[in-house]
Design a protein that fits this description.
The chain has about 140 residues and is α+β, with helices and mostly antiparallel strands. About 50% of the residues lie in helices and about 15% in strands.
Length: about 140
Amino acid sequence: MSDKQLASAVINDRICFNYTDFLAASCKKRWSFVDAIYGVMPIFGMVTRNPADSQRPPSERLKELALQIISTQVSDEINIARLITLAEQQHIAQFDILLPYPLSSEQLDAIHREYRKPLSLSQQEERLTIQFPTAPH
């Protein structure tokens, strides 16, 4: 799978992350020792492994970081909560995740519990929209 296929599409200034493509890439990935550590303790990777090139668009940084932390070894809810954390760190105010199936209300609740901060999750069929609350000025 090429990077162009994996690229988080940016449509009308809105990032759309294809979750299924990243799960497939995760299965094919060759893991180094450091990647394995980040997979087990992703928060360490999220904090310390930010790309040095901050000139790249947030969608590109999100894609690169997502490849490091998405794992078929954890639930979709945990993976989605990790993606939300990455997006917040990249100062992305709103983005979409294209899923292979619509999430149940229990799964949406689990994402809220895992992420632990205020956010808006709305779903239309297989598209989950994440929006962070705007900070007061």
